Amino acid sequence: MTADTPGRRANRSPLAHPRLPQAALVLASVGALGTALLSQYVGGLHPCEFCLWQRWAYVAAIVALLPGLANPRFRTASLVLGGVAFLAGAAIAGFHAGVEQHWWQGFTTCSSSLSKTLTLEQLREQLMAAPLVRCDEAQWTWHGISMAAFNFPVSLALGLVAWTAARAGRA
């Protein structure tokens, strides 16, 4: 008997819904971005250039995954592209974690978050007040593990989940 056969109930579990993997991946991405923004604006941890790139990987994943939630025809391609974005984020996070551990060299310059101004005096004031953020020094660690080192396995796992869901959708 199949699920369509009378007398047998089809699997109506919400966990069996085909949109669940994409919805979970979008929520995980929003959660990761929210955590990064909270750590910046509430916790006072200013991001370096690598940190910003890791955030953009999550934004790219969200943008890639949303069309698949809206239209089932785009689901597989959407999951594949979302997986690529997550794996790119994992690569950036892994490289960043290596720079923080001094396993290899990252940027030779530091970054700061300056906004556009109208006058030279305002620009000077902003330059003097802007935090200088080094990519090779972790601003926060938990038992010696930085945010980049935490982000590496999270992004890698999310990428693998996306690709596994894409493969299951084609089967």
Short characterization:
The chain has five helices and two strands, in the order ααααββα.
Which characteristics define this entry?
Bromodomain-like, two-stranded antiparallel ribbon, mainly alpha, membrane, 171 residues, protein-disulfide reductase activity
Verbal overview:
One of its GO terms (cellular component) is plasma membrane. Its main location: membrane. One of its GO terms (molecular function) is protein-disulfide reductase activity. The protein is mostly helical. It has one domain (18-170): Bromodomain-like (Up-down Bundle). The chain is 61% helix and 2% strand. The chain is built from 5 helices and 2 strands. A two-stranded antiparallel ribbon has the order 1-2. Strand 1 (141-142) and strand 2 (145-146) form a beta hairpin. Helix 1 packs antiparallel against helix 2 (49-70) and helix 2 (49-70) packs antiparallel against helix 3. It is globular, with a radius of gyration of 21 Å.
The secondary structure category is mainly alpha
What's the SSE pattern?
A: HHHHEEH
* Total discrete domains: 1
Low-confidence stretches: none
CATH superfamily membership: DsbB-like
Shape call: globular
Straight-line distance between termini: 20 Å
Number of strands: 2
**Number of helical segments?**
5
Q: Quick one: biggest sheet? A: 2 strands, antiparallel
CATH architecture group name: Up-down Bundle
**Mean pLDDT level:** 80
The name CATH uses for the topology is: Bromodomain-like
Helix content: 55-70%
Rg (C-alpha, Å) = 21 Å
Biggest sheet, spatial arrangement of strands: 1-2
CATH first level:
Mainly Alpha
**Percentage of β-strand residues:** under 5%
